[in-house]
C-alpha cells in the first residue's frame, strides 16, 4: 500500500470504508508526520491531537455501524 499521507482524500476515505485502516490509525499517522516535520516546516501553529484522536475514535464507531458520511474519518488541516 502507498504511504497513508500520499493518498488523496478520496483514497483515504475508501481505505477507511473498506476497513483497510482505522480512522485512529490514519490520524496517528498524520500526527506523527506533523511531529516529525513541524519544527523544520513551521506549518502548524496549533495541533489539537487529543481532539483529533477522540473524533477519529467516534468516526471508527460510525464507520463500523455503516452510519458515516463520505469523508468521515479523513483528517484535514485548517490553515
Structure overview:
The protein has 79 residues and is mainly α. The chain is built from three helices and no strands. It has helices at residues 9-17, 23-41, 49-65. The longest helix has 19 residues, at 23-41. The mean pLDDT is 95.
Could you write a compact summary of the structure shown?
This protein has helices at about 10-15, 25-40, 50-65. With about 80 residues, it is mainly alpha-helical.
Estimated helix fraction? 55-70%
Q: Give helix and strand order, one letter per element, not per position.
A: HHH
Q: Structural class, from helix and strand content? A: mainly alpha
Number of strands: 0
Tell me the strand percentage band. Answer: under 5%
Distance between the termini: 28 Å
- Average pLDDT over all residues: 95
Characterize the overall form.
globular
The helix tally amounts to: 3
Low-confidence stretches: none
Assembly status: single chain
* Biggest sheet features: none
Using the CA coordinates, give the radius of gyration: 13 Å
